[in-house]
Structure formats: structure tokens, C-alpha cells
Amino acid sequence: MEEAKTNSTEPVYTLGVSARLSDTPAHSVRMYVDKNLLIPYKKKTNRHLFSKIDVVRLQCIRHLIDEQGLNIAGIKALFSMVPCWRIKNCPEEERKNCGAYYSNSQTCWEASEKGNSCKNEDCRVCSVYKLTEECADMKSLIRKLLP
């Protein structure tokens, strides 16, 4: 699975292929999309396409469930604790109007109110979303990003 660990956000894999590459049941992939743990590309036909980053994210989610014992709520809480404002270098003034800065239960890509830095950005290609390449040690990553 080493080839999946690239920065590619190009949506190329169907749900079935993504499930197979990440060793995740297709119904679980659908659930992760429904729970906003994944942001696949949605075609006009409503079919989802997944990128290499999404496959890595699926592998991360499986790792957190199978090896760390987390459930979906725990994974969401973990992802929501990533200090996106620090990664994106958001000014203090922007943070005041950003739902991701204040929410303990929503990931930054779920926040309805976003700062100017993120307002018009596609979250699928954001550096925060791509952080799952650091999945093996999320705690160290978060510790490194906080003062």
C-alpha cells in the first residue's frame, strides 16, 4: 500500500476500488462518508470518486478502529482536535469567526462558518485534510502543532 501514500488528491478510484485498496468494507466506506470522515469527489451523477489521499484516510480510520480501539465518535473527536488554524496560519481575527476554531466535535471541513483563508477552498485538497498521512501518531502531530 506504499504507493497510496502520496499527496495526490486526483479523484480516480470508485468506491469499490477504494474499499479494496484500503481493506475496508464498502458499506463502511459509505458510513465514513455519511459521518464526514471522508470527502470524496461527487460527480454530477452522484457517484463518488476517491483519491489516493482518501485511500490513505480510509487506512487511517481502519487503523484507529482496529488497532487503537476508537469508534466513529472518537475518530471525529480526534480529527476535530487538529489545530487547523495553526496549519493554515489563520490570523487571530479570522479565528473569531471560524466554527472550526471553537468546535470540539466538528472537523474543520464540517464547520459552517469558516475564516477567509478557508471559505472558498476545496477541503478535499486542503493540507489539514491530507494530514492523515501522519495517522500512526496523531497525538505527536497535535502536540507538535500546539504551543
Largest sheet: 2 strands, antiparallel
| Average of per-residue pLDDT values | 84
Order of helices and strands: HHEEHHHHHHH
Give the helix tally. Answer: 9
In terms of DSSP E residues, the strand content is under 5%
Portion in helices: 40-55%
Radius of gyration: 15 Å
Q: Poorly predicted ranges (pLDDT <50, ≥5 residues)?
A: 1-5
CATH fold type: Multidrug-efflux Transporter Regulator, Chain: A, Domain 2
| Strand adjacency order, main sheet | 1-2
User: What is the overall shape?
Assistant: globular
Could you say what the CATH architecture is?
A: Orthogonal Bundle
Summarize the structure.
By secondary structure, the protein is an all-alpha fold. It has nine helices and two strands.
Description:
- This protein is mainly alpha-helical and 147 residues long.
- The chain has a single domain, classed as Multidrug-efflux Transporter Regulator, Chain: A, Domain 2, CATH 1.10.1660.
- The chain has helices at residues 15-22, 26-34, 52-66, 72-80, 84-87, 92-95, 99-102, 116-119, 138-145; strands spanning 41-42, 48-49.
- Strands 1-2 form a two-stranded antiparallel ribbon.
- A hairpin with a 5-residue loop joins strand 1 and strand 2 (48-49).
- The longest helix has 15 residues, at 52-66.
- The termini are far apart.
- 29% of the residues are buried.
- The model is unreliable at 1-5 (pLDDT under 50).
